[in-house]
């Protein structure tokens, strides 16, 4: 691996070429750029150009979006048809999903007029955020897939800058698709990666030395996640000597694959030994694609894999099974940071590489130092992807004020200033953020989102040329997350409120609760700590009925949102929810602990989620009984009701 001076070399040459570069970028008809992933030098040069000219690129992006969409129904209300940046900043409100959901639902229900975008919305991207219990849906256009391809392509030169020889072998990337639905009007709604992997941009990608995967596309595109996982691991094992990198999008998905391997390695070895695919793989495309790789019995290979897997400890198993692997590519920032130590255990010290920061709304930024430690990861937002703005988050108080606007959707007066004005006064452009400051990300996309609050809090760690770099701090309002689920304090409260009805009918009271995401086993699961008492004023702990408490666990799960339930039921990426009942006085002990750590007595509120291990110990040492959900919660693809359209249309007007 060469830790390169490439960037500095490039910087020098960029300086010399600065004028030409600028002309080159701005001669492009649009900010829809192309990048040849095999041309490292050109790719790095393009990145240097984009980051050096971040401000100009952002201005150009906003101009393009406004010219394209000023006459859409939504923007016209604020701009009166003028593609003016000034009017945009003055009149266009900063919004949450709830503010625009009626427009999205009209699109879902087949209104083809230029509601939010002059370009046709070809599909809706379902995000892991929810609104009213349903996944949020983000608009997407055909052009957006080109933008995503650009984004994926530009990751390649960055990686090649740091790791040599990636063209000498294959990548074992475990990629999966998720269920999708058709809206009443025939638009497809699906998660962003499913959209990309099913698109011709992925399927017909031009072959190059850097995109050779061990997984045949047929196995990635198999809708049965178990068959998909089995076949991808089998192909990865058969081609083990060629594998130079392994990974998945999120750390949770990669660890799930390791767990699957732990459960299935004997069967996988048997298949490799005999050259015969197990009979429960019934998907014809998978069978066909795998048969081309598992083309003959390979007993020596099976012996070798078996020897590694049969060992008592799986520490360093990745290196053992795929000995040429140079790194593990998985996102380990944000809520995925909880998996770092487990990944380190299995990977045997291989670098953990978080390459990108993206969402259903838009792909945001890339990590220019992919081999850095997970705690040092910063993402540089690519200024050509969207128009970025940032709400300054100075202190807790500011967040609270922002939440207030978010929750009740009304404009309130703060020191005589209209709340909306107040938020706008706290907004800064991409190039004006300050190192060490915290911000909430706001995007204006090419696909019809204008000044949309993504909900992520970021901290500026520095600049690459003129483009700021951000550490992902947290998702606003999310307390629990195991996989792609994002459970807020409100979601949790709602679910606990439902479940406590069961015990209340039996004369028990839930006096306090908190939670945490237990990821010590795979898959991880939600743990709730409950302090209970009898209705009569007694400290004596009530007798707990196993069936009743298991019902409580299940009721909580049933009441959580559809992404949680999909992860539980379809993806099996979350394990059964657990309730740990703690003895009387435990939450007082938790308060004492928090106060000892500096919380203020006056402002103390029971944390609804705990992240510190010490706090967990305070609770765990007082657990008197543990219960698990025995049933898997229901899940079915959400429906968009056509008849909702009319009432929504009235509301939207
Ligand atoms: P979704 O819209 O469901 O695709 O989720 C997107 C969200 O996932 C983002 O807004 C972030 O909160 C989170 N996310 C995506 N990429 C990263 C990353 N690299 N690090 C931390 N969180 C991320």
How would you portray this structure in words?
This protein is of the alpha+beta class and 653 residues long. Helix content is 42%, strand content 20%. The strands form 6 sheets. Strands 9-10-11-18-17-16-12-15 form an 8-stranded antiparallel β-sheet. It has a 4-stranded mixed β-sheet with strand order 2-1-5-4. A 4-stranded parallel β-sheet has the order 3-6-7-8. Mean pLDDT is 88; it is low at 1-20, 397-413 and 643-653. The structure holds adenosine monophosphate (AMP). Adenosine monophosphate (AMP) binds at residues 127-128, 192, 331, 333-334, 354, 357-360, 454, 456, 472, 475, 484.
Instruction: Give the number of DSSP strands.
Output: 24
Subunit arrangement of the protein: single chain
- Hetero groups bound? adenosine monophosphate
Helix content: 40-55%
**Distance separating the two termini:** 58 Å
Q: Classify the secondary structure makeup into a structural class.
A: alpha+beta
Profile the largest sheet. Answer: 8 strands, antiparallel
Helical stretch tally: 24
Enumerate the strands of the largest sheet in spatial order, edge to edge or round the barrel: 9-10-11-18-17-16-12-15
Rounded radius of gyration (Å):
26 Å
Unreliable parts: 1-20, 397-413, 643-653
% residues in beta strands: 15-25%
Calculate the mean pLDDT score and round it: 88
Tell me the overall shape. Answer: globular
């Amino acid at each position: 691996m060469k830790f390169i001076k490439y960037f500095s070399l490039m910087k020098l040459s960029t300086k010399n070429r600065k004028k030409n570069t600028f002309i080159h970028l701005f001669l492009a008809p649009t900010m829809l750029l192309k990048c040849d992933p095999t041309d490292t030098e050109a790719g790095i040069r393009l990145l240097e150009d984009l980051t050096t000219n971040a401000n100009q690129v952002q201005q150009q992006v906003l101009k393009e979006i406004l010219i394209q969409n000023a006459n859409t129904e939504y923007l016209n209300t604020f701009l009166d048809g003028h593609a003016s940046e000034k009017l945009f900043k003055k009149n266009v409100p900063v919004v949450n999903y709830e503010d625009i959901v009626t427009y999205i639902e009209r699109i879902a229900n087949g209104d083809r007029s230029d509601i939010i975008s002059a370009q046709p919305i070809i599909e809706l991207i379902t995000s892991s955020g929810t609104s009213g219990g349903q996944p949020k849906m983000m608009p997407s256009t055909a052009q957006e897939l080109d933008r995503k391809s650009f984004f994926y392509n530009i990751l390649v030169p960055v990686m090649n800058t740091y790791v040599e020889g990636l063209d000498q072998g294959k990548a074992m990337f475990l990629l999966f698709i998720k269920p999708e639905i058709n809206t009443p009007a025939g638009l497809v709604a699906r998660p962003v990666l499913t959209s990309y992997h099913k698109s011709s941009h992925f399927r017909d990608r031009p072959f190059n030395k850097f995109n050779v995967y061990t997984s045949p596309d047929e196995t990635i595109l198999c809708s049965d996640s178990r068959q998909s996982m089995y076949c991808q691991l089998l192909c990865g094992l058969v081609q083990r000597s060629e594998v130079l990198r392994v990974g998945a999008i999120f750390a949770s998905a990669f660890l799930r694959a390791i767990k699957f391997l732990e459960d299935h390695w004997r069967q996988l070895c048997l298949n490799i030994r005999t050259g015969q695919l197990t009979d429960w793989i019934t998907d014809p495309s998978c069978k066909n694609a795998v048969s081309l790789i598992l083309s003959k019995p390979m007993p020596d290979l099976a012996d070798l894999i078996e020897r590694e897997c049969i060992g008592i400890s799986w520490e360093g198993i990745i290196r053992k099974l795929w000995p040429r692997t140079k790194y593990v590519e998985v996102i380990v920032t944000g809520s995925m940071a909880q998996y770092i130590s487990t990944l380190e255990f299995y990977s045997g010290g291989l670098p953990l590489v978080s390459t990108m920061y993206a969402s259903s709304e838009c792909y945001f930024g890339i990590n220019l130092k992919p081999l850095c430690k997970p705690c040092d990861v910063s993402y540089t937002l690519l200024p050509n992807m969207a128009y970025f703005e940032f709400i300054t988050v100075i202190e807790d108080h500011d967040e609270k004020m922002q939440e207030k606007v978010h929750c009740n959707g009304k404009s309130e007066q703060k020191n005589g200033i209209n709340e909306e004005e107040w938020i706008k006064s706290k907004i800064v452009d991409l190039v004006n953020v300050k190192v060490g400051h915290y911000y909430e990300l706001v995007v204006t996309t090419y696909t019809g989102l204008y000044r949309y609050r993504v909900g992520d809090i970021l901290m500026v760690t520095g600049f690459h040329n003129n483009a700021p770099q951000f550490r992902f701090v947290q998702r606003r309002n999310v307390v629990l997350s195991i996989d792609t689920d994002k459970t807020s304090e409100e979601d949790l409260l709602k679910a606990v409120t439902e479940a406590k009805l069961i015990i209340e009918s039996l004369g028990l009271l839930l006096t306090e609760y908190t939670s945490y995401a237990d990821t010590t086993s795979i898959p991880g699961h939600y743990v709730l700590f409950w302090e209970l008492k009898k209705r009569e004023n007694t400290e004596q702990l009530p007798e707990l009925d196993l069936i009743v408490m298991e019902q409580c666990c299940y009721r909580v799960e049933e009441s959580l949102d559809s992404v949680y339930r999909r992860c539980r039921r379809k993806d099996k990426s979350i394990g059964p929810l657990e309730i740990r009942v703690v003895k009387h006085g435990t939450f007082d002990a938790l308060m004492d602990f928090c106060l000892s750590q500096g919380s203020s007595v006056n402002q103390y509120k029971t944390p609804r989620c705990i992240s510190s291990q010490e706090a967990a110990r305070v609770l765990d040492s007082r657990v008197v009984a543990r219960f698990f959900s025995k049933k898997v919660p229901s899940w079915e693809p959400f429906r968009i009701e056509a008849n909702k359209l009319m009432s929504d249309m009235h509301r939207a007007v």
